[in-house]
């Protein structure tokens, strides 16, 4: 599977973040970014762009998928730079949905 994924990335196949398989606990999907980087040969930036690819493939690219004026403002904050350490995406500090913070991590 790793080799096939790497070949798909090298061949320019559009990779979309997310799953409908329901095979992992809720809230653990960010591990997918690390798998794309650590085993799939993607750069951290390319792995993060798979959220935009998912929005485009669902026909929702004009509403979600990137941070731009006029879009939904669905974002997460993480404790660090995911371009340097993609694993920080697994430690969400807050979730913003539609421009409003809807979930905040408990203070440590």
Summarize the structure.
The chain has 108 residues and is an alpha+beta fold. The chain is 28% helix and 11% strand. The chain has four helices and three strands, in the order ααααβββ.
Report the principal-axis shape. Answer: globular
- Helix run count: 4
> Percent of residues in helical segments?
25-40%
Poorly predicted regions:
none
- Given helix and strand content, the structural type is alpha+beta
- The tally of strands reads 3
Percent of residues in β-strands = 5-15%
Radius of gyration: 14 Å
**Residue-averaged pLDDT:** 88
N- and C-termini, Cα separation: 38 Å
Please give the oligomerization state of what you see: single chain
Main beta-sheet strand count, sense and barrel state: 3 strands, antiparallel
Question: If you had to describe this structure to a student in words, what would you say it looks like?
Answer:
- The chain contains 4 helices and 3 strands, in the order H-H-H-H-E-E-E.
- The chain has helices at 2-10, 31-38, 44-48, 50-57; strands at residues 75-77, 94-97, 100-104.
- A 3-stranded antiparallel sheet has the order 1-2-3, with no helix packed on it.
- With 108 residues, it is an alpha+beta fold.
- Strand 2 (94-97) and strand 3 form a beta hairpin.
- It is 28% helix and 11% strand.
- 11% of the residues are buried.
């Amino acid at each position: 599977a790793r080799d096939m994924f790497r070949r798909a990335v090298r061949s320019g196949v559009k990779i979309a973040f997310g799953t409908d398989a329901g095979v992992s606990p809720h809230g653990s999907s960010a591990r997918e970014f690390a798998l794309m980087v650590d085993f799939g040969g993607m750069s951290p930036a390319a792995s993060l762009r798979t959220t935009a690819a998912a929005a485009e493939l669902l026909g929702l690219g004009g509403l979600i998928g990137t941070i731009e004026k006029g879009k939904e403002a669905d974002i997460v904050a993480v404790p660090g730079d995911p371009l340097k350490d993609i694993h920080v995406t697994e430690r969400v500090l807050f979730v913003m949905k539609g421009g409003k913070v809807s979930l905040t991590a408990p203070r440590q």
